[in-house]
Amino acid sequence: MKIRRGIPVVDGVVIGEAYILDGEHYRVTQRFLKAKTAEAAEQEWQRFEAAAAAARRETERIKEQISGEVSSEVASILNYLALLYEDPDFIDYVRRRVTKDFFTAEHAISRKVSIYRKEWERHEVTRARLADLDDFERQLLRFLLGEQQRTLSDLQKPVIVIARDLTPSQAASLPLEWVRGFVTDAGGKTSHTAILAQSRRIPAVVGLGSITGDAVGGELVILDGREGRVIIDPDPQTLAKYQDRQERFARYLLELDELRTLPAETRDGHLVTLYANIEFPDEIADALRFGAEGIGLYRTEFLYDNENPDPSEEDHYLAYSRAVELLGGRPLVIRTLDLGADKFVPDGLQHEKNPFLGCRSIRYCLLERRDVFWRQLRAILRASARGDVRIMLPMISSLEELLEAKSTIEEVKQELRREGHPFREELPVGIMIEVPSAALLADVLAQYADFFSIGTNDLVQYTLAVDRVNAKVAPLYQPTHPAIFRLLLTTIEAARRQKIPVSICGELSGEPHFTLPLVGLGMRDLSMASSTIPKIKRFIRRISALEAGRAVDAVLTIQNATETLEYLNEKAREIDPALYGL
Ligand code: PEP
Ligand code: MG
């Protein structure tokens, strides 16, 4: 039994078989064949031979393709790699391990390569070639696992997915109906894996460091998404304890579902409207099921991926129209492209040294690719003819940026008028407050924006200078930092004075221990990962605006993040004990 601790991102207890994915390609690291029979071993051996032949052909093809263009040193490396595929020492080793010890071909290859690696590390000449050895292993595994990659989407049993991190395209190809949990080496509370898991209410623990190396495909794993604990190969007592918790958690979810049609109303009659954050229109059905009253944040950059790195106006338009249709008259806040850094990185932004501070998001749209921005704005405006669409601009850091974006929107409207395309003339244009300069300048920005939505994921990152996706500094990523409360206060007051709506769409709006101070600060619109809506609703129905106001007074006197967190957890535990102990 191995116990590992990580960052809990989606509550829940699940027990299931490990399914291991690699960062570059799917990697199912099962050490032994399921059936230890001569027939299974023979099949595995044939699988290896086919993969080795394909890898050798690929190396030959590359050799021919680049012959004459490369140095003699590179040519000799390629020759050497081609030879390695036929090296009797290597081949015999794999054959013995597969047929006598029932190793999987992958495991046999990795074992032999690690033996080579130890030998090669001892001599200077071979030490310089270690990267080639890694290439050799990767190449072979790629051909072996290619077959399994195709069958991944045919997965027919529940699994707990264990990965280094999940890229959006990997996530998109996963059959989520079979995924009971996510566990990753990398990531923090606002990483893409976390956001995906939240939107589907799939229990998840991230930032575990090297869990992909600790677990083997097919092993039994317990995932405790509340405590951030992952237990590999549990002993019988531990397993029984968690089976019991799993059942209690399922009962708690049923209780939450019963609140679906009730309003999020405090005990003293204050209504809070709960919206969902989405990345794809397909998530809308789930969001409505969880009780969302609209979409407060549609992250449109997820239209972009390696297969479609440059979507057309029609691609945008179809996605937005579909979202409008699915919402049946409910509001849809479309955020314009927030490309770069932790999101999809388009061509031209790949080599920035400091991507989070680089030419990303609204800067990319205004400075680098106005054509891309224009195309998107046309599509949003056209879709606005079909429902309650609103535009939200990300990463605004100055008034000039907001004014320039607004005048671009006006120009696009002119063009559509000339072409006779209908759109919603009074379409609201709001901004995200996610850069400290915008929060500090909120009184000015509120005069020109139709609404604010506070993006605490980035606001925390930029205010505290802590990378939101770097697990090493995750403990320093503290949304309860007093500096964050001050910026929230400044922003909310500025919005109130200017009488514009203000909401929060960062992950903390889905964290119950923040609900009390947010309601106390006067927030009446919150947008969150849709699966968190039921527990936030239950929480709101247990509090009064009066006690929420008192909690804000208390928080503003505390001078550090840890004590604030303790205070808020204590309050939340009193209000809804089920959030803490099951
Ligand atoms: C945020 O920064 O808080 C936010 C909601 O946007 P994203 O997580 O997409 O950067
Ligand atoms: Mg952001």
Describe the model.
Helices cover about 50% and strands about 15% of the residues. The chain is α/β, with parallel strands linked by helices. It has 3 domains: about 1-25 and about 150-250, Phosphohistidine domain (Glucose Oxidase, domain 1), CATH 3.50.30.10; about 40-145, PtsI, HPr-binding domain (Enzyme I, Chain A, domain 2); about 260-580, Phosphoenolpyruvate-binding domains (TIM Barrel, Alpha-Beta Barrel), CATH 3.20.20. An 8-stranded mixed sheet has the order 1-8-7-3-4-5-6-2. An 8-stranded parallel sheet has the order 15-14-13-12-11-10-9-16. The two termini are about 25 Å apart. The model is unreliable at about 25-30 (pLDDT under 50). The protein binds phosphoenolpyruvate (PEP) and magnesium ion. Phosphoenolpyruvate binds near residues 190, 297 and 456. Phosphoenolpyruvate binds near residues 297, 338, 456, 457 and 458.
SSE layout and pairing:
Elements: E1 2-5, E2 7-10, E3 13-21, H1 38-66, H2 72-84, H3 88-99, H4 105-121, H5 124-127, H6 130-152, E4 159-163, H7 168-173, E5 179-184, H8 192-200, E6 204-206, H9 211-214, E7 220-224, E8 229-232, H10 236-257, E9 273-278, H11 284-289, E10 295-299, H12 313-327, E11 332-335, H13 361-368, H14 370-384, E12 389-393, H15 399-419, E13 429-433, H16 436-440, H17 442-445, E14 452-454, H18 456-464, H19 482-498, E15 502-504, H20 512-520, E16 525-529, H21 533-540, H22 545-557, H23 561-575
Parallel strand pairs: 3-4, 4-5, 5-6, 9-10, 9-16, 10-11, 11-12, 12-13, 13-14, 14-15
Antiparallel strand pairs: 1-8, 2-6, 3-7, 7-8
This protein binds phosphoenolpyruvate (PEP) and magnesium ion.
